Amino acid sequence: MTETTGYRVAEMTWQELEDALTETTTLLLPVGSTEQHGHHLPLGVDVYMPEAIGERVAATTPALLAPPLWYGVSPHHTFKPGTFTVSTETFQRYVFDICKSATEWGIEHILLLNGHYLAQDPELEIVVRRLRNELGIEAFHVSLVELFADVAAEIRTGDVSFHASEFETSIMLELFPDFVDMDRAKDVAPPDESLPLTDYDALGENKVGWALSADDMEELTSTGNIGDPTVATQQKGARLVEAAVSDIRLLVDALEESK
Hints:
single chain, alpha/beta, Rossmann fold, two-stranded antiparallel ribbon, 10% strand, globular
């Protein structure tokens, strides 16, 4: 996008947006959740991450950045105050309708940048299928953990990073260091053993679908996080963010070139 038109939809007039659509028909939609993230991270982590990553993509690649979605499917985190959650059905309808409205003013490609990865992956996969089948647009579910998984496996030093631990904390140290209080970070180990084909780790042996309830989470952690955030660093976060930004840029550029 040019410097004069910008790329943040919420900051544009409709005339500026109309002009911008002559340059790109790709929309980045950050989708997250407002939920507890332990003692050391703010409630908005799952939105701050995809929005900031989307910002870095849109600043250098032809794409528009939509206002983020702050509320997601988080019933397993309601054991701590500050967590909001909506039903699977409400979430799917809401995201679908937002995307549908964007297609009515010219958007042809939509990337759902999912900061609440793993937990609401199933819902967003269904939304993408509906957008493609019912509206005929190119829609993609972009789960951040999948984009940085290879780098995360290479640089990790903690045994477990499941929620608000090494990966999320490192990314926040890179993107929003003022929101991180490392003095309050606590290492919370999950049970020594998990069921076969499951694992309490974002990069673990999760071969079957499963989910935690709020009661499960309350039994697992008193602080809210699972894993070790004390090993997080800004340097790790920079590599994780760059991996995600680089991959999203590749997809956006390919979509724009195919028009």
